[in-house]
Input
Amino acid sequence: MHENFSLKPYNTFGVDVKANYFAEANTVEELKEALHFSKENNLPWLFLGGGSNVLFTCDFNGLVIKLNLKGISVQPQNENEVLVTAKAGENWHEFVMFCLDKNFGGLENLSLIPGNVGTSPMQNIGAYGTEIKDIFVNCTVLNLETLEIETFDLEKCRFGYRDSIFKQEGKGKYVILDVTFKLTTQNHYIKTEYGAIQAELENSGIENPTIQEVSKAVISIRQSKLPDPKEVGNAGSFFKNPTIPSAQFESLQQRFENIPGYPNEDSVKVPAGWLIEQCGWKGKQIGNVASHKLQALVIVNATGKATGKEIYDFSTEIINSVKEKFGIELEREVNII
Ligand SMILES: Cc1cc2nc3c(=O)[nH]c(=O)nc-3n(C[C@H](O)[C@H](O)[C@H](O)COP(=O)(O)OP(=O)(O)OC[C@H]3O[C@@H](n4cnc5c(N)ncnc54)[C@H](O)[C@@H]3O)c2cc1C
Output
């Protein structure tokens, strides 16, 4: 247990805040001990995986518990499928690479997403046409009130776009201990129609890609357009892509001919990056904070010296200008602490 501990290396924004207490949990027992300490001392707690989806706006007056539970196990199902369970503290991308190495398919489009496996159900991580809900079987959680272990299946997780029960009514009530996925061992379902995957594969002269080649293409695209948190602090997309009623979209189309939209029943999803760019934010810097020059949806700690409050205020200004120009209220994807 550390006291008065800097969280700067533990959040990808690189914001320099302190926690009163900081503990690492390598086992469920250590996790329970940390929770016991919190309860005894009347301290709030906060779980941390890779710190790639949090913005600390101030010091944390409580105990930060970094989840380091490790281990991956494989259970063959039938000749086509396998169940793979990874503990919460496994690094997501390393887990994806482990599966690809064994030729298990289903996670390749989710290559290079920062963070840990245990956090992946929180916002149903997704990229390039895949979300974890597509291959998710269940997760084991510790109920923080009863300290009993429970299993949440697909239905109970209520996954939505960057959403799950863990961000809604289950918020603060559970800690995810491990996650199980159902992956293919042959006849993989290759998804290349999303984003620039197809073009990237064509550039490399690949016609019938393997899952490993899809992963390579995804990695290459991500590296070319997303800032590496090791070089400049960020938490990926800062906002969710808003979904608006079709009627509102049609009326916006009359004013903004080129507005992109992805229809879904009676609503349309609009890329937040486009809206932000149209308001003149792409590449714009105020003080220590900027919108990334290649991807307006990503807010960066441009000088490395930004406070969480500065980043938060910058995001508020973006929300206000998008609201004013388009009448659309952007919602933050990043967890504000
Ligand atoms: C460059 C970059 C690119 C990104 N691209 C994508 C992308 O393509 N798609 C996408 O979906 N996301 C993306 N993200 C966001 C981020 O990678 C994911 O949200 C990831 O799942 C966060 O994992 P983490 O372990 O770092 O979470 P943390 O930041 O450590 O935690 C996030 C939240 O979950 C809580 N939490 C953490 N672990 C647990 C647990 N085991 N049980 C209960 N609560 C927990 C924390 O208290 C916090 O509120 C990107 C981020 C970056 C920096």
Observations:
- Residues 2-67 form a domain with the Uridine Diphospho-n-acetylenolpyruvylglucosamine Reductase; domain 2 fold (CATH 3.30.43.10).
- The CA atoms of residues 15 and 87 lie 27 Å apart.
- The longest strand covers residues 174-184.
